[in-house]
Structure prediction request, 287 residues.
Amino acid sequence: MLLLNASGCLDALTAPDVARQLDAFVTKTVTPEPRGGNQPPRIAETDFGMLNAIGLANPGRERFLSRNLPELTAILELPIWVSVGGFSAVEYAETCAALPDDAVAAIELNLSCPNVDAAPESAAEIVAACRAATQLPLFAKLSPAAWDVTEVARAVEAAGADGLSLVNTIRGAVLDADLRPRLANVTGGYSGTALKPIALAVIFACKRATDLPIVGMGGVQSGRDVLEFVACGATHVALGTTLFSDPDAPRRVRSELRTALDEAGFERVEDAFCAAHEPVAAMDNHA
Ligand SMILES: Cc1cc2nc3c(=O)[nH]c(=O)nc-3n(C[C@H](O)[C@H](O)[C@H](O)COP(=O)(O)O)c2cc1C
Prediction:
């Protein structure tokens, strides 16, 4: 199991010591053109998590390739996963084609940002275009808000994805005391604690629907959370919102995971892989 950061939740150039605690670093989503993102305020705390409407602010593909990626490679000595976004299948594929195989370990296709208008093509069309453009492993990052996420998961698997990243944020809104939206964008992506049960359900369902390895994320805060994600079918786990309040989370979570494994009676985290599926498999056998 690899412990990663969730895209957009850690700036490794300003906090390299946090990134070095991970097994691989995932970049913020890169789009072909630079983006300033949405108007502030773009972040709001809620009772059970956080809303963000960053709007994919990023330096754009050219600057990412000429400045950010070489700097990340030089300071991290970690596998780097690049999160790719765009507004058409061609845009996604062009960025994938431009990523150097020797500096990039994997590509995560952000097919699910709630803060920007989605590409008109389907997730499967985007994955197919990217598959034709690169040999690098492709992880499709899906929205938990899809009507039937397992259908999307099967479609991206058929289109050539090597893995799934589950889940992105889910759209939400929060009001201030005067009943006005606290985000200038009105809505934002809801992340943190409240997302965990939703993420577990999506991972569980997609594990049953496909053979793809899954990077699980959504409200992971503790070692016990990591164990639950693995039990539902995650091969790897990513830390997101928790990194904003606790930069030491990777180290802490690893140490808590050791305790959680002991308490659950497992020697290695891999031994708990899909443990939550056992009662369902038993029911299937009886049917
Ligand atoms: C401030 C912020 C920025 C984010 N930016 C991105 C992004 O650029 N690309 C992406 O795929 N996901 C982005 N996400 C979503 C996270 O990668 C992750 O899927 C989500 O927050 C759920 O995990 P968490 O509850 O542990 O934060 C962002 C999340 C937050 C909170």
